[in-house]
Amino acid sequence: MTQVSRFDDILESIEELSADEQATLIDLIRHRLAEKRRSEIAVNIAQAQLEYETGKVFRGNLTQIMDELSK
Questions:
Q1: Containing H/E element for 59?
Q2: So which domain of life are we looking at (predicted)?
Q3: Segment 1-27, tens digit of pLDDT
Q4: Spatial CA neighbour of 26 closest among 18, 40, 7
């Protein structure tokens, strides 16, 4: 089964739901996406903290940063 036909099947199933069920599904998906994004942000923060603690983060003023980027 291709990705497109699977997606079409899902959409057809959703269309069979009542309006209230569809609204509940939308809310559920929004909450899950928000939680997933929060988890991704937490991972990024932990990675950034580790890089900072191990000295892998470049620090400097704007001129120093621009010089570093142009290397």
A1: none
A2: Bacteria
A3: 688 899 999 999 999 999 999 999 999
A4: 18
In the numeric block, the tokens 């569809």 are attached to: 22
**Cα distance between the two ends of the chain:** 49
pTM tops 0.70, yes or no: no
**Sole residue written with tokens 């580790």:** 50
Report helix, strand and coil shares of the chain as percent, to nearest 5. Answer: 80, 0, 20
DSSP letter string, the chain? --HHHHHHHHHHHHHTS-HHHHHHHHHHHHHHHHHHHHHHHHHHHHHHHHHHHTT-S----HHHHHHHHT-
